[in-house]
Amino acid sequence: MDEQQLRYFVTAAEMEHITKAAETLSVSQPALSRAVTRLERELGAPLFERHGRSVSVTSFGKEFLKRSRRILQEFDAARQDALDLQAPDRGKISLGFLHTLSTGLIPDLLAGYKARYPDVHFILGQGPSHTLLEQLEDGVFDLCLTALPEFSSKVSWEPLWEEELFIILPAGHPLAEKERLNLSDIQKDPFIHLKQGYSLRRSVERLFREAGLPLSFAFEGDEADTVAGLVGAGLGVSILPAQQTADPSQVVQVPIAFPRALRTIGLSRIQQTSASPAVQAFAEYIRRVLAGELKNE
C-alpha cells in the first residue's frame, strides 16, 4: 500500500465513477482499476460495488475512506513542512529571549521581519538566561537572545549589543533628581534584585565587586518587572536595564557613573547543528538590524 494507491482510491470513492476519476487523476482507466484491485487484494476486502463504470463504496470502504483521508492529510502536511524547511521566507522559527527584551526590541524585530516575510511563523518563549539555554539544549528553541552563558559545550554564543544598566530608585528618593550616581551612593539602601542564578544578578554582583563594595539583598524576585514594582513601592533600590513600562511617577532610572554598567546580550544557538534556511535568515536579519546595516521597519 502506498500514497498513490490511497489517492486513487479516495478520488474514485469521492467521484463514484472510475472513468471520471481516471480523467481527474490523469491516468488511464485500466491503470486506475488495477490499482484499486491491488489495494482490495492487499486489504482482503472489497472497497467498491461495481455498476459498470460507476461504483459505490462498501461499508468497509467507507471506514477505510475516513482513514485514507486522514493519512493523505498527514502526507500533505509532511510534504509542506519539508518544503517550508527549505524556504527562508516560510516555515517556523522558535525564539527564546530575556524578559527584559519583551517590551521593546523583540516586538520591533518581529514586526519588521513579518513585514518582509509574512509566511514565517514564530513560536516565542521568555525567561532567564539559564532557563532559556536549558530549553535551547533540549530543542525547544532554535535561537535565544541571552547573556553570556557561564559554560556549555553545546551552545555557541555570538555577542550582538551592549545594554546599559541603571540605578532604579523610588520616585521620592533623595537621590532621584541626580543626573548620575555611583554605586557607593546607594550602599546603605535596601537592595532588591533577581534570585541566584539569573545572569542579570551576576552582572550586578560583578559591578559591586569591581567597585569594592559589599552587596546584600533585602528582597529577591523572579522578574525585572516585579523588582521594579517593589522599588516603586518604596521597599528599596535596584539595578536593571531600562524599564520601558515603568511608571515615572513611581520609579526613577538614573545612569551609573562608576563603574561602567553594561551587560552584553548575544545570540545563542546549538553548535554543529544545521539550522533551517528560515532560522538562518532570521539570525542574519537580527545581526544586520543591530549592526545598523538594515532598517527595522
TrEMBL record:
<dbReference type="GO" id="GO:0003677">
    <property type="term" value="F:DNA binding"/>
</dbReference>
<dbReference type="Pfam" id="PF00126">
    <property type="entry name" value="HTH_1"/>
</dbReference>
<dbReference type="InterPro" id="IPR036388">
    <property type="entry name" value="WH-like_DNA-bd_sf"/>
</dbReference>
<dbReference type="InterPro" id="IPR036390">
    <property type="entry name" value="WH_DNA-bd_sf"/>
</dbReference>
<protein>
    <submittedName>
        <fullName>LysR family transcriptional regulator</fullName>
    </submittedName>
</protein>
<dbReference type="GO" id="GO:0003700">
    <property type="term" value="F:DNA-binding transcription factor activity"/>
</dbReference>
<dbReference type="InterPro" id="IPR005119">
    <property type="entry name" value="LysR_subst-bd"/>
</dbReference>
<keyword id="KW-0804">Transcription</keyword>
<dbReference type="Pfam" id="PF03466">
    <property type="entry name" value="LysR_substrate"/>
</dbReference>
<feature type="domain" description="HTH lysR-type">
    <location>
        <begin position="1"/>
        <end position="58"/>
    </location>
</feature>
<dbReference type="InterPro" id="IPR000847">
    <property type="entry name" value="LysR_HTH_N"/>
</dbReference>
<dbReference type="GO" id="GO:0032993">
    <property type="term" value="C:protein-DNA complex"/>
</dbReference>
<keyword id="KW-0805">Transcription regulation</keyword>
<comment type="similarity">
    <text>Belongs to the LysR transcriptional regulatory family.</text>
</comment>
<keyword id="KW-0238">DNA-binding</keyword>
